[in-house]
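quick one, two chains, predict together pls
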Amino acid sequence: MAAPVQGWFDDRSGWSSLRKRLAARRVRGNSPLLYVGGLLAFLLVLQVASGLLLLLHYQPNAAEAHASVAFIVGGIPYGALVRSIHLWCSDLLVLTVIVQLFSVAIRRAFRSPRELMWVSGLFSFFILLAFAFTGAVLPWSQDAYLQARVGSEIAGQMPVAGPLLRYIMRGGDEVTTATLRHAYGFHVAVLPAALTGLLFVHAVFLRRAMPEPTSERTPGTIPIYPDYLVRLGTVMTAALVLVISLATFVERPLGVAAEVTAAAPDGASPPWYLLFVHDLLLRAPPELLGVPSAKFIVGAGAVVILLAFFLPFFDRRGSRVTAALSALLLFAAVMLSIHAVL
Amino acid sequence: MVRFLSPVSRRTKERAEVCPVDEFAAGTARSVVLGEQAALVIRLPDGSFRAYIALCTHLQCVVGYSAENNRIECRCHEGVYSVEGANVSGPPPRPLAALKVTIESGVVVVSEG
C-alpha cells in the first residue's frame, strides 16, 4: 500500500535521491554551531506562528490595544498560552543569539572567510532587539509606555545617530499614540522584511564559509541523513517542550493600561538583557568627565558596538586579546545584571 | 524615506485645566495631560503653585510628587528634585522644565511658556 504512494510521491518530489545524497554527505556531529542555526530558525518559525495568531485579535491603536491584549489573554481559547509562547520564545531567541554572538567572538570564529557572516549576524541581532522593543510597546500597558519612553530616550543619548533613532522609535518628537502605531508597523512589517533579507544574506555567506560536507568516513563525522537531521529534530523538540512548559507554568502578567500621567512605579526595570545598562545608569553620578552620565554610558556602548561590527576587519587573525575582552565584557554584563536584581 | 517613516507628532493643546482652585489642597499634587505629555502641578503649603513637565531630565521617566518627603521623585533611576524643580540628587543632569500656572475664573490652568 505504502510503496506505490511512495513511488508516486518520489517521482514528483525527488525525495529518494535527495535522501541518498544527504546520506552520503557527512558533517562533524559534535559541533554545536551546526545546531544553533537550526534552533534559531525553529524559534523564529514559532515566533511567526504565534505572532500571526496574536495579530488576528490585536487592535493597534492606543484606545483599544491594552483591552485587546486583555481579551486575547482572558477571552480567546488558548489566547493566554499563545501570548505567553510569543513572549518566552522572544526571550529564548535573544538569549540564544547572545550566547551565539559571544561564543563566536570568544572562539574567534569571525575570522576569514566568515567576516560577512559576523556582520550580518550582528545586524540580525539588532533587528531582533528592535523586534523586542516594538513588541514590548504593543500592549500599551503602563510598563509598555515606560519602556517606550526610556528605551527611546536611551537610544537618543547615542552620539550622532541618537536623535534620529529616537525620532524613529517614537514616531515623532515625543512618545504619543503615534508611537504605538509606529511600533506596530515596524513589528509586523518593516522588521520582518528586514530580518528575512538579512537571514537570506547570512545563509548565503554561511554556504560559502562552512567546511564542505565530506563523503569520507572520518572519525567524529555523521551522515546528514538520518543522523544529523534526527539530532537537530531532537534539539528542536527539546526547545518546543521548554517554550511550552515555560509558557504554561510561568505567567507573563499584562499589567494595567498605560496612563500618560502615572508616575513610574517603584522597582521599574527593563527587560533582563538590559539590566546591566539599568544598573550602570542607576549607580552612575550625574556627570562623568563633564558629560551627563547617561550620554557617557550610551556613547561608550555605541563605540563598543561600532568596534564589534568592524571586528573581523581590524582583527583579521583573531587575537587572544579579542577573545579575552569579549569574555570580560560578558562577565561584566552578567555581574552588573545580577547586581541590578539583588 | 526616514522622514516619511517617522511622522511628526501632532501637538495641538499646550494648555490644560487642572481643577477649581478651592478643590486643590495645599501640600498635594495633581497630574494632567498637556498636549500628549504628563504635567505635574503642586500646591505648596503656602498656597502657591508650581508646575513642571513631569518627565525626568535623565531618561524621561514620569516623575511623581512625594508628599511625605515634600519633593519630586523619579523611581526609575532614583532621581530627586526639589519642589522648585531643581535636580537635588541621583542621575538627573538638569532641573525639570517649568510650566506656567494661572487661575482663570477660579480654575487652575497650566500652560507652556
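Chain A touches chain B through 39 residues (CB under 8 Å).
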